[in-house]
């Protein structure tokens, strides 16, 4: 992967005639500018550019693809929610491409996406290392302790979500995340928490809303009998055998 990224960087450099100002204002262009920064202290290496690209590709693509897979599964099973989401989409966009104003008003879909992220958080834990001994409630965490903060367990804790914790109930989020979690941010931490919270959170939500809207505008879908439910943890929690649905053109 490193070599293909370096190839793309070289291509961009050639197209820009080596002029830093022509590298572009997209993410790659900004990284390439940082690689040519006049101030040596601010300059990043080509390997760091490649690592950032890999990081963004992985952090952005796999996670959002997984979110879409699980949401499509849930909507294929819960066709009543699929229909509610479709009515909302058709009301806001008709057969037009989703626009940014309408995307911000997709309340039903927002609830569905949150519930999908709660049941199947693509990232199932946050990992941290204790930098210096710290007291946390009744615990003293020694220096260098590795912490695994189990998102999946929090999302499936009946004490936080009630006895119906394992059911798909988007209505939990009808009055927003704060209400659904009783103002406990750790109860729903799909995108992490605090200063290292996912930088792509809004991007991912918007991307998912656009993809789902375009699907709902064109098709109804039901679950194929070929589907085998087998969530598996391979960096993300994925459907091991894919999600097979039967599409019916509208
Ligand atoms: C459903 C989609 C996504 C999920 C569930 C997700 C989840 C997460 C989580 C849990 C973290 C925090 C990791 C930690 O604290 O240890 C994180 C960080 C990050 N995410 Fe996402 N993410 C998603 C989409 C995206 C997208 C679309 C992008 C980029 C466009 C992105 C870029 C990043 C980056 C760069 C970080 C590291 C931020 C930092 O350390 O300051 N993510 N993501």
UniProtKB/TrEMBL annotation:
Its main location: membrane. Keywords: Heme, Iron, Membrane, Metal-binding, Monooxygenase, Oxidoreductase, Transmembrane, Transmembrane helix. Its cofactor is heme. It is found in: Membrane. PROSITE patterns: CYTOCHROME_P450 (PS00086), EF_HAND_1 (PS00018). Heme binds at residue 198. One of its GO terms (cellular component) is membrane. GO terms for molecular function: heme binding; iron ion binding; monooxygenase activity; oxidoreductase activity, acting on paired donors, with incorporation or reduction of molecular oxygen. Belongs to the cytochrome P450 family. This is EF-hand domain-containing protein.
